[in-house]
Design brief:
The complex is a heterodimer.
Chain A (H helix, E strand, L loop, with lengths): L3 E12 L2 E12 L3 E5 L6 H8 L7 E6 L2 E2 L5 H7 L1 E3 L12 H8 L8 H6 L2 H21 L14 H13 L5 E5 L7 H16 L3 E5 L3 H7 L2 E6 L2 E6 L1 H6 L1 H8 L5
Chain B lengths: L1 H4 L5 H21 L3 H27 L8 H14 L17 H20 L7 H21 L20 E2 L2 E2 L4 E3 L2 E3 L1 H24 L2 H11 L1 H6 L4 H27 L9 H14 L4 H29 L7 H19 L8 H29 L1
Antiparallel strand pairs in B: 1-2, 3-4
Helix pairs in contact in B: 2-3, 3-7, 3-10, 3-11, 3-12, 4-5, 4-6, 4-10, 5-10, 7-10, 8-10, 11-12, 12-13
Classes of the chains: A alpha/beta, B mainly alpha.
Chain lengths: 256, 382
């Protein structure tokens, strides 16, 4: 029996007159790779921002792992186990790769101001554990040799990897990736696919936005399609591919 | 980080440096004619180091531009003065008056911290220029309050300021009078030097530790990209408030020491110019880099004092008579020097690796890129 990890229903988000999300509902099961596709401007990233707490939805329901996360602050969402990456990479450009990942540990560590100033043994241990875990994650995504380099000096593909490592540092149950393969060559895309499968096999559920249809078909367990802020289809990749509404949304209606 | 790692290796250097700091006042007071005024300048430099390190947390780490920082210095100074002078004796219950020195300092730190949060809370959503304007206003408000709170109840004694502030009493010693130890005569100005040096060292250690903690990283993360920091689960509201609070606390301690050193304070000492001086120490030295900020504080606070002595002989030697009022010329030279430094080294005199990387290769990279583009364009043209 698969366990439902994330469930949203009736989500609406308006920006002035623009109805960016209109009655969107979806459920993500534990351990799957769930894809989200749609034409440009369909509301994919808006939905992402709602799911990660950066936008507050106007109405709807949002539960994660049995916890109500409707209109919660991002740090609570992250604390509950949802981590994300960004479409246009948002690393801390002038921090080293290692420090970037160490920032990701913030939400799982506790040292207060006084802890930081007086450095009792538990704070020292915590600090050492942060460093060790960050190094481990850099190895996990395959860029340990860049640990001391500034994030802005990494190659594009490595920056993507670093962003994933930083998100993984928050110990997420759901990892939300916003177009991780954008701008990558086929080789890099293939490596990224392997990395995502590895992450899934290690027990992290993945929510993925991507334009690369071939990648999505080969990788996702289920796919939802958004168009004009509405979910128009959901299901296994092959079902979605042959769905007439999806074809219409992408290609337009065939003339009579 | 580097400082800590290299400590064991450079232990000898460090000990030598500490010894130098300990004997420095003696060298200065015996080496120069106007020794004690230099020693006072040195005391002030140490106070400014504390201020600059406090502002460094707000501006250098968290990237929150603060033009009213001197307000916290003022709050610390006034709190100390009110507790340790006869001014409010009639109003305050006697158990509140003349607390032990350490208690005074702690109270000043806490009061300044509260003011820091008062400034931080309403400005959480502001950044850059907008924040700068609000903080500018805050600095002015605090100063104007201090000038005008002599009515309806005389709280701050208005523009006249508060005098007769008691010098610190410490383990039975009164730091306001010369003390004899081991046959050496310690003048108050020496004693204050050691006292301020101690607090300065304390603040440097606290700064380093905060920088290398998860909170220090969170500050830098907010400066680098607030949205990403948010998405990484950093409670940006609390962490920013903490930056304001810590910065203000450092300022408050420094202000309290200033009041105890001077024995007299007035709103004059807390004008906008002082805020700008502290900010220029941070920027000139190297934002976000502790050794750089210390260097900046020393240079910006000492140079005008040195120029004061040098400027007149220099004028006489070059032109043969007094052409410009020495006070004007002094600030003119100082200002010009700062402009030149910022043009030549925009990243500061002693920047962190991070900041150097931010400002140097980037510009070079763009320049190279433009050159390449130009060459491409020429080639295409042919």
């Amino acid at each position: 029996m698969t366990k439902v990890l994330l469930e949203i229903s009736g989500i609406h988000k308006r920006f002035g007159g623009l109805h960016a999300l209109n009655d969107v509902a979806l459920t993500i099961n534990q351990g799957e790779i769930y894809g989200l596709i749609g034409p440009n401007g369909a509301g994919k990233t808006t939905l992402f921002n709602v799911l990660t707490g950066l936008y507050q939805p106007d109405e709807g329901k949002f539960t994660f792992n049995g916890k109500d996360l409707f209109c919660q602050k991002p740090y609570i969402v992250v604390g509950s186990g949802i981590a994300r990456t960004f479409q246009n990479i948002r690393l801390f450009a002038n921090m080293s790769a290692l420090e970037n990942v160490m920032v990701g540990r913030h939400v799982r560590t506790k040292a207060s101001v006084f802890g930081a100033i007086f450095r009792p043994p538990q704070v020292k241990n915590e600090e050492a554990a942060i460093r060790a875990r960050a190094m481990e994650l850099l190895e996990y995504v395959g860029i340990p040799h860049h640990a001391e380099e500034l994030a802005c000096n990494l190659s594009y593909g490595d920056q993507r990897r670093l962003e994933i490592a930083r998100a993984l540092a928050t110990d997420p149950q759901l990892l939300a990736l916003d177009e991780p393969a954008a701008g990558m060559n086929p080789k890099e895309t293939e490596d990224l696919k392997e990395l995502m499968q590895k992450i899934r096999n290690d027990g992290v559920t993945i929510l993925l936005i991507e334009h690369d249809v071939k990648l999505m078909m080969g990788l996702c367990d289920r796919i939802a399609v958004l168009d004009y802020g509405k979910k128009i289809a959901e299901g296994r990749p092959e079902e979605v591919k042959s769905n007439p509404r999806v074809i219409e949304a992408y290609l337009g209606v065939a003339p009579e | 980080m580097n400082l800590i790692n290299s400590l064991p290796r450079k232990k000898g250097t460090l000990i030598a440096f500490c010894l130098l700091l300990l004997v420095l006042p003696w060298m200065i007071s015996s080496g120069f004619q106007s020794g004690s005024s230099y020693l006072r300048a040195l005391d002030m430099a140490l106070l400014f180091i504390m201020l600059a390190l406090g502002l460094n947390i707000v501006v250098g780490y968290a990237g929150l531009l603060d033009f009213g920082y001197i307000a916290f210095y003022a709050v610390g100074a006034y709190t100390y003065a009110l507790l340790n002078s006869p001014h409010l004796q009639a109003m305050l219950p006697s158990w509140m008056m003349y607390p032990p020195f350490v208690v005074s300092i702690v109270i000043c730190a806490i009061v300044a911290c509260v003011f820091g949060i008062m400034l931080g809370a309403p400005t959480l959503k502001l950044r850059g220029d907008y924040l700068a304007i609000v903080t500018l206003g805050f600095g002015q408000i605090v100063r104007i309050f201090m000038t005008n709170l002599d009515r309806p109840i005389n709280l701050t004694n208005g523009p006249q300021g508060i005098n007769n502030i008691l010098p610190p009493q410490f383990l039975g010693y009164n730091l306001g009078k010369p003390i004899e130890w081991f046959g050496l005569q310690f003048e108050p100005v020496h004693l204050f030097y050691y006292l301020i040096l101690f607090f300065c060292a304390l603040i440097i250690v606290v700064s380093i530790r905060l920088q290398n903690s998860r909170l220090g990283r969170a500050w830098v993360a907010i400066r680098e990209d607030e949205i990403a920091a948010n998405a990484m689960g950093i409670n940006t509201r609390n962490v920013k408030l903490l930056a304001f609070a810590m910065g203000a606390t450092f300022g408050g301690v420094s202000g309290a020491l200033f009041a105890s050193l001077q024995g007299f304070i007035s709103p004059e000492s807390f004008i906008l110019m002082e805020s700008i001086m502290v900010l220029s120490m941070v920027v000139l030295g190297g934002m976000g880099h502790i050794p750089g900020v210390i260097l900046g504080a020393i240079i910006v606070s000492i140079t005008p004092e040195v120029l004061r002595d040098v400027i007149n002989p220099l004028q006489m030697a070059v032109v043969g008579r007094k052409v410009v009022d020495p006070e004007t010329l002094r600030m003119l030279i100082f200002g010009a020097a700062m402009i030149i430094v910022m043009l030549v080294r925009p990243e500061g005199l002693w920047p962190s690796k991070r900041r150097r990387a931010e400002l140097r290769p980037a510009t070079k990279g763009i320049a190279l890129q433009e050159k390449d583009d130009l060459q491409d364009a020429e080639r295409n043209h042919d």
